[in-house]
Design a protein that fits this description.
486 residues; alpha+beta; two-stranded antiparallel ribbon; 6 strands; 66% helix
Length: 486
């Protein structure tokens, strides 16, 4: 595969390098922001070697190449065009200028959590190891390993300490959010530390009405409870947004000679007041509302709610509104130590991979669809569903995508029935095994297998009865090509 030729063909068919405002890439997609969006030729680009699918979404021309290939194509494009490197956040900032506030908000949520995922995943895996030492009956013992052996108790204690990232999650979020919104991230850390200050009362006890001896501050005539915001994901994000905006505002009006002292001082004081008086209570209300919706959908509605929840996740991916779910997962971990959404994410992604394999099995031998289907399936094993959705399952017919939605729903039902939960978020599929609560690890695997198998079986049966449009189209093209070759 000649990556320079691929890049040259791509540049030529998007209106030339002068029409590319910026370029970046993620795990599977080359993302281009075009000055004139009418100048790209979708049909020609889709026939370039290595291209799986092309679509325009969120103000970006997105070309799916797949993992590794996209890195090499992007490098060749940057070399040929002479453009300077642009990050995904640069791309998003440029695109967001023309986007609505709601969509920009969802993308901001995504940006905040993406950088934190390695820390959250690492800490969750450590807690998973710890649970091996404190789970009763494991390894055929009476009680736990920690109960039976001092060394095991010491190791469990050590692992609990080094998994501290989840305990102090508001600090990480305040840092990342302040950085994302253009403020000084060190000041964000200060806000994060205030959120969980040990001298403040327990927020959960206060909200549940079980706290005793709660102190109140009189701040400008307002009685403010001196309680912390443990697990305060939304208070952290909202206060960080305010901090970033206020810091920029005050910098404009403070004389340069005093700015070194006055800007951080005023920013911390005013942002802290805003935290306790406005954004803390507001964040609690948002968290409570989202928690209520999730509780109704997953806890109160039982298997029906789990089916709906898992089924809706990939349609949300198409719209780009799935980014906010990471904040709900973080809130769940902070409040309960568990995340029941991660297993639902996993089955929703794996199910789209199953639909790809269903299309692979039905496609004519050596057809292009067969090649694209199997290469699009592989990323779903590590939690990436976009190639499967856009290159195969929605390309010519909605039926493969809907079969994946069905598989996700049934996989979600199994996860609910067996109470499968994770200790973190950000990893699904095969890597997701590492953050699943160990006692239910086997059921996590079974749930994903159900989600994978259902779309395959559904597509085979549906194709025999009615025929899947994408298969018919692919097979006709392949038959026509064979005649031409002969």
């Amino acid at each position: 595969m000649n990556y320079k030729n691929i890049a040259n063909a791509g540049i030529e068919n998007v209106g030339g390098k002068e029409n590319i405002a910026s370029a970046a890439h993620c795990v599977t997609r080359l993302r281009l922001v075009l000055k004139d969006t009418t100048k790209y030729n979708k049909e020609i680009i889709e026939n370039i070697e290595g291209v799986k699918v092309v679509f325009f979404n969120g103000g970006q021309l997105q070309i799916i190449f797949g993992t590794k290939t996209v890195d090499l194509v992007h490098a060749a494009l940057m070399e040929i065009s002479g453009m300077k490197e642009a990050s995904l956040s640069d791309i998003k900032s440029e695109v967001n200028k023309g986007q609505g506030k709601l969509k920009s908000m969802f993308k901001a949520f995504s940006d905040i959590f993406v950088g934190l995922i390695p820390a959250i995943v690492g800490c969750a895996m450590i807690l998973g190891l710890k649970s091996l030492f404190i789970t009763e009956g494991i390894f055929g013992l009476e009680g736990t390993l920690a109960d039976n052996y001092k060394w095991a108790n010491d190791v469990a204690s050590f692992l609990n300490i080094i998994a501290t990232g989840l305990t102090f999650l508001p600090v990480l979020i305040a840092y990342s959010a302040t950085k994302r919104f253009g403020g000084n991230p060190v000041l964000g850390i200060i806000i994060g530390l205030i959120l969980i200050h040990p001298e403040l009362g327990d927020r959960f006890e206060y909200l549940q009405g079980t706290a005793t001896n709660v102190e109140y501050w009189n701040l400008f005539g307002i009685n403010v409870p001196a309680v912390a915001f443990q697990g305060g994901i939304f208070p952290a994000i909202l206060t960080s947004l305010f901090l970033a905006k206020f810091e920029k505002f005050i910098t404009k009006y403070v004389p340069q000679v005093f700015s070194f002292v006055l800007v951080p001082t005023l920013t911390i004081i005013v942002s802290s007041l805003a935290l306790f008086i406005v954004f803390g209570p507001l964040g609690d209300s948002i968290a409570s509302a989202l928690g209520f919706v999730c509780e109704i959908l997953y806890v109160k509605a039982g298997v029906v709610g789990a089916f709906v929840f898992a089924s809706l996740l990939q349609p949300l991916v198409i719209t780009g509104t799935h980014h906010a779910i990471g904040s709900i997962e973080a809130q769940l971990i902070a409040q309960t130590g568990f995340n029941y959404i991660q297993p639902l994410w996993s089955v929703s992604i794996i199910a789209q991979g199953g639909a790809c394999i269903g299309m692979f099995l039905l496609a004519r031998k050596k057809s292009k669809l067969k090649e694209i289907a199997v290469s699009s399936f592989v990323p779903t094993l590590v939690g990436v569903s976009e190639p499967a959705i856009f290159a195969v399952n929605l390309k010519d017919s909605i039926i493969p995508f809907l079969s994946g939605v069905l598989g996700a729903g049934l996989g979600g039902v199994y996860m609910k029935l067996l109470d499968v939960k994770a200790l973190g978020f950000g990893l699904t599929g095969i890597p997701g095994i590492t953050i699943v609560n160990p006692p239910v690890m086997l059921h996590y695997v079974i749930g994903n297998l159900i989600a994978f198998i259902v779309p395959v079986v559904f597509l085979v049966i549906y194709h025999k009865i009615k025929g899947v449009q994408g298969i018919e189209k692919s097979n006709k093209i392949e038959a026509r090509n064979n005649k031409v070759t002969l």
